Amino acid sequence: MTSLRHNGSDGPAAADSPRDAYLDVARDCILDVGWRRTTLTEVARRAGVSRMTIYRTWADMPQLLADLMTREWGGVVADSLAAEDPQATTVDRLVGDVVGTVQRLRENELFLRIVELDPELLLPYLLSRRGRSQDAILDLTARAVAVGQAEGTVRAGDPVTIARGLLLAAHGYVLSAHTMVDDVVTEDALDAELTLMLTRSLQP
User: Fold this and answer.
1) CB-CB neighbours of 5 under 10 Å
2) Domain with 151 in it: what CATH number?
């Protein structure tokens, strides 16, 4: 799949611009106290700048959060893409990217903190609309599907529809896999099942 990178950062600790530095501070605030108790004023205080400096970039916390999530989830996907096996088949690379992203999201400390303290923040992206990160992932996936179709290794069908189906399947494994883990079924076993389902759904 084509590379996907953060907007100006290689990770939460790497700030290539003041904007990235402010996002890093906001990320630390959310990890410390949660979304509800994080304000633009607190971000400015921790960043050592005036409130107006922050307000010139983001009018409110929802705008800041949207930019932070776009950067964070983009980084998760970029890490998955970087782990691709260049010798693998197109289908195996695509499935590996999806499963790798699912696994990394489940382990991401910002994602876990939001789910723990403020899960309602994720609801609009599950029930009402897609976010920028989801659209970027869908675009990458649809292009990878089209490449596989041209090779004859991916089944026929509209690449956009196939990509959206893959994303919908992945949602459950990100958000609800823990509800299916117990003494009988492990998380690794579920991920193996996801790998099998995605592979078979893509093969001709």
Assistant:
1) 14
2) 1.10.357
